[in-house]
Design goal:
Elements: E1 2-6, H1 9-26, E2 31-34, H2 40-54, E3 62-65, E4 67-69, H3 80-87, E5 99-100, H4 109-122, E6 128-131, E7 153-156, H5 159-164, E8 178-181, H6 184-188, E9 192-197, H7 203-211, E10 229-234, H8 244-252
Parallel strand pairs: 1-10, 2-3, 2-6, 3-5, 6-9, 9-10
Antiparallel strand pairs: 4-8, 7-8
Helix pairs in contact: 1-2
Bound molecules: 2-phosphoglycolic acid.
The site of 2-phosphoglycolic acid has 6 residues, from loops.
C-alpha cells in the first residue's frame, strides 16, 4: 500500500486526477470504478477541467459506479445517478452505453447484482477503482462485518452511515436504509485501487485501514492485501498515522519513472 500525504484536498485531487489521466492516455479502452459522496467532488471537477482544457478523452472509456440506494429513482436529486450526472457524466464525452450504475429500482435484486458483476467481467474488469472511505471504515457501502470476499449485493446501511449521508437529502426526506454495492471481493479484483480521504472525521478509519489489522470490521483494511493500492490523504485524515515520516520519505524519493 502506498500512502501519499498532501497539504490539502486540492493537492490530493490533483494527484488522483493525474492517475486517471495516465490510465486514459495509456489504455485504449480504460475501465474506471467510480465513487460518490463528498470526497470525489473536487476530483471530478479536476477531471472535467482536464477534459475541457487538456483534451482528456473519455470516448472509449467505460465506468462502473460502486453503489446506489435502493428505492430511489435515478431522477431523484439525492440518487447517485443524479450525483454522477451533475458532477461528472454531463461534462465528459463518455458514451452513455459505457456508463454503468447499480439499479436501485430493480424488481429482482439478486439478478440485477449478478448482471452487474457480469457486466464488469465482460468489460474486461476494472483498471482503476477510485474509493472514498466511510468514518466506519467502509468502502462502497460494505459496512463493518461485510465479507472480505463479498460480491455485488444488497446491504443494510448502519445508522452512522445514514447520519453521514443525510446532508445529501433535503430536510424531511428519509435516507434509505438499503443500498446495492459492489462487494469487497469485487473491488479487490480491480487492477489498481486509489482511495482518497480528507478531514479529521476520517482520521480514525484511515489509521485502522493503513496501520491496523486486516479485519471485516474495517472493510477498507483489505486494501493492505491489494498489490496496487494507493491511499492519498490530506494532513487531517493522516494525523493518527504512526509512520507518516516514512510515507513522506518514500513519496519524496520516488524514482522519476514512478512519479505521477
Ligand atoms: P464521503 O463518503 O466521501 O461522503 O465522506 C465516503 C464513503 O462513504 O465511502
Amino acid at each position: 500500500m502506498e500512502v501519499i500525504i498532501q497539504p490539502s484536498p486540492k493537492a490530493v485531487c490533483a494527484i488522483a486526477a493525474r492517475h486517471v489521466a495516465h490510465l486514459l492516455r495509456t489504455k485504449h479502452k480504460a475501465v474506471l470504478g467510480l465513487p460518490t459522496g463528498s470526497t470525489p467532488i473536487s476530483l471530478y471537477a479536476e477531471i472535467v477541467r482536464m477534459h475541457r482544457e487538456e483534451g482528456l478523452d473519455f470516448k472509449q472509456a467505460t465506468t462502473f459506479n460502486l453503489d446506489e440506494y435502493v428505492g430511489i429513482d435515478p431522477a431523484n436529486p439525492a440518487s447517485y445517478h443524479s450525483f454522477m450526472r451533475q458532477h461528472l457524466f454531463d461534462h465528459l464525452n463518455l458514451d452513455p452505453k459505457n456508463i454503468h450504475m447499480p439499479d436501485g429500482m430493480a424488481k429482482d435484486m439478486p439478478l440485477a447484482c449478478q448482471a452487474y458483476e457480469t457486466a464488469i467481467r465482460e468489460a474486461g474488469g476494472i483498471d482503476l477503482q477510485i474509493l472514498g472511505i466511510g468514518a466506519d471504515g467502509h468502502i462502497g457501502f460494505n459496512e463493518p462485518s461485510s465479507s472480505l470476499s463479498s460480491r455485488t449485493r444488497l446491504k443494510t446501511l448502519t445508522d452512522k452511515t445514514m447520519r453521514f449521508n443525510k446532508s445529501f437529502f433535503s430536510p424531511g426526506q428519509p435516507v434509505p436504509r438499503y443500498a446495492i454495492t459492489m462487494g469487497v471481493g469485487t473491488i479487490m479484483e480491480a487492477r489498481a485501487c486509489l482511495l482518497l480521504a480528507f478531514g479529521d472525521a476520517k482520521a480514525v478509519a484511515v489509521e485502522r485501514m493503513v496501520e491496523g489489522a486486516v479485519s471485516a470490521m474495517v472493510p477498507a483494511s483489505i486494501l493492505q492485501m491489494h498489490p496496487q493500492a494507493v491511499v492519498i490523504l490530506d494532513e487531517a485524515a493522516a494525523k493518527n498515522l504512526r509512520h507518516k515520516d516514512y510515507y513522506r520519505f518514500v513519496y519524496n524519493h520516488k524514482p522519476e519513472w514512478q512519479q505521477r
